[in-house]
Amino acid sequence: NEHLSKILHKDTPKILVGCKSDLVQDPEKVDELVIESFRVKHDSLPFYKTSSKDGINIHTVFLNMVESILKKNEFDYEKIIKK
């Protein structure tokens, strides 16, 4: 995050993506407390567990990022997606 802070504007939209969720055999191995601690430390980043193999949350991640960018730049997301 320190590296990103140097090269990105502070208001640049960011999300946290946990990839390959299909490979986690035991959900208990993914320490939710560590993830939540990281999110809080970094401005409560939106977090998604994803699996491109199973198609889990891939579409959602991209929609969230596009919506965040549009809102940041004061575009009307709903108006744009209805066209």
Describe this structure in words.
With 83 residues, this protein is mainly α. It has one domain. The chain contains four helices and two strands; from the N terminus they run H-E-H-E-H-H. A two-stranded parallel ribbon has the order 1-2. The longest helix has 15 residues.
- Which band does the percent of strand residues land in? 5-15%
Structural class: mainly alpha
Overall, the morphology is flat
The secondary-structure element order is HEHEHH
Number of strands: 2
Main sheet attributes: strand count, strand direction, barrel closure = 2 strands, parallel
Oligomerization state of this entry? single chain
Reading side by side through the largest sheet, how are the strands ordered? 1-2
Please, how many helices?
4
User: Averaged pLDDT, please?
Assistant: 80
Low-confidence stretches: none
Rg over CA atoms, rounded to whole Å, is 15 Å
Number of domains: 1
Topology of this protein?
Elements: H1 2-7, E1 16-18, H2 32-41, E2 47-49, H3 58-72, H4 77-81
Parallel strand pairs: 1-2
Features:
mainly alpha; 2 strands
Could you give a quick summary of the protein structure above?
With 83 residues, the protein is mainly alpha-helical. It contains four helices and two strands, in the order αβαβαα.
